Input
Amino acid sequence: MSRIVGILALVIAASAPGVARGQVFLASRPNPEFTIGPLFVRATVTPDTEVVTLDVLWSLAIPPNTAGTAIEQDLYLLWPNAVDGDASAGPPDPALAAYVKSRGFIPIGEGRLPLLAKSLYRIGEELPPEPVRGGAPFVTFVRHGGPLGLTSPVTYVRIPWTPLLANRTWQMNLRMELTDLMKRRKATWIEDLFWGPQHTISLTFNDVRPRALFPIYFERRDRVIRLADDPSQLLVNLRDADHLKIYEFYPGSARRRLSETLDSTEEITLFLDSSEGISPQVLTVQFGYFRGMRSWAPVLIPIAFFALGNLAMPIFMSIVRRVSAAVKGRVQFGPGSAERETGVVLSRDTLARIVPGQTTYEEVLRFCGPEAEEHEQLTTPGRRTLIYRGRRVVPQGRRRLGWLATVRRWSIEEHEVEITLERNVVTDVQARVRRTPLPQPQSAPAA
Output
């Protein structure tokens, strides 16, 4: 029998969706004639603490003409998580620890939870809930061993019988202070810096999937108290709504609104469907709180990006131009020569064709071109000078592989040729070349 229970527990755990929290009510005797309703599972979140206050509020729906002895019994709550008790409520119940030990579990915590009763029809005054003496004893336990190792802690709570449970004008309230109900959502440091930490909280009803919880449910499944037709809800109250950002909630049928009774509180509610049976019904909310400069993040972030974009663009373009010039100055691509000329650079062959005493003015223009400076001296009529100037950028240490060539450095050659003529005949030719290295090779023009 225990092997079958273990296999079923593994199947349930393997098919479980995301993390959630919930509860199942059990009666002391099989086939209870009453139901739970209305039921409210309410989690209250505040921005100043990681502790979540969780209240389970319920009444019993008892059919008419039901004998009192048929309903007078202790109730039990299966809670799939560890809880912290109230030390002032009294000593733990050793019978609960003995029960879980007899099933092969290991108790890791015992105590009592606050159990309160609230009148629904007190008129003229708002009285706080009345505490039920002794509270609700509990035991938290785990199971060690098995194919999946140590289980997560779960809690078994006994709710002692009180006549107020059968009184429809009273509502019972089991209160817990939980530190692991709200989970920090993983995010990048940029998200944490600008938007602050984000959290996720999940509530569920009828959750028996934890491996340590399922065997007890399976043993006592004929004692499960069903949900009545009364309106029942899962609720998440998020305080300080002025500094709250709700990113999403699931399912889509959940409702979001401002609380009608609590100041500055956002309320997310999900109505429970009694026709779902033992199927878990889940409410999940993802949210975050923001304060200080984070309140201005929706305005400041676009302004910062706009300002940085306008400042960074000139710097970026300057870097791009420098890098582009450096690459073009070092790498040449193409079949042609890497030399670049401006002005007129006369070759040695062209200069050799100019013969003083023979070459005429018209021939000089035909050999060298008309792009020359022409100087005349008024004191010596018939005498003039033609000056050709040019500039050449020449690569040094050039290596070529096909169309790709690399240049180690560049130099500049300044060419100047003076041709003196008298009565349209060349009398003298002076050619000068001045070579200087480029101080910044990347400034060389591209091929």
